[in-house]
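Researcher: Next entry in the queue.
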Amino acid sequence: MGPCDLAEMMAQIPQMTHADLLVGPQHGSDAGVFRLREDLAIVQSTDFFPPMISNARSFGRIAAANAISDIYAMGAVPVTALNLLAAPKGEDQLALVEMMDGAREIVEQAGAVISGGHTILNDVVMFGLSVTGTVHPQKLLRNTEVREGDVLVLTKPIGTAIMVHSYNAGNASEDELDQCIKIMTTLNRQASELLHDCGAHASTDITGFGLLGHASDMLSTTGLSIELHVEQIPLIGRTKELADAGNICGGTTRNAEFTDAFVDYDADCLDWRMILNDAQTSGGLLVSLAPEQAREYMERLSSTGYNLALGQIGRVVRGQPKRISVHR
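Model: Structure for this entry, 328 residues:
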């Protein structure tokens, strides 16, 4: 569902409150957080969608990494997961088993366990997971705690939807798809484990609403704005070339229609509009830190052997509230 439709629908539903509900569905939160004790809260999220690639095992791995990412974005540790599977009657069981076993591999990498799941009949295959994690309430990282002067660090290159769409249209190679799959199946575990040590103020993960959509959520409770610098944003392979050639999916177009209301592009950055709205799957973390902590964060993450492209892509500034400006 596009962000415009989702916002309109959610505005009609009364939001539940509770003294121990630390994070609810407001402000584009990555997960819900409920306090069980003074020293323990559970973090819950779910995500599921149809396969975007034909390899069942790879798709299962992508779906699991994508679902777990919400837990990591909150500075939490994933503990359990439930499989969510919809499939037509008579669907190839071997493919479904491969898909779920691929998800198991990633959940195991995360140090969590799959404790069950749920299946339904459906016209098309859809798969994902519901994930529960834990965090100390005082160590919880929200997506809205950005501070003026913060630097924004992105921990994975963007362009997953453009690359997959290009491959499915015959415009990208098998090797390019494999590179994209490697990025999507890389857990945000290492990036998350350094958040507290490096003094991160806020964190979110970049998924279906794109870089601009998730960045805008970080401003939702502040009077601040964000400056992004496109030349500092890491991209997957030929993302720019493929985007310029028109390899854009419907979700990206809907994202752009939504973010146009609060994003200002320099004239020489208009060709980045679809890339910045690219509907990511299992993207990286967008982390808001003081400048000196941002340098430490990137250095320490790289020193762990993490080999995906990182970037200091922008900063939080005092400007027109809740707007994002895009520059070279």
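Model: The domain at 19-139 is CATH 3.30.1330.10 (60s Ribosomal Protein L30; Chain: A;).
Researcher: Noted, moving on.
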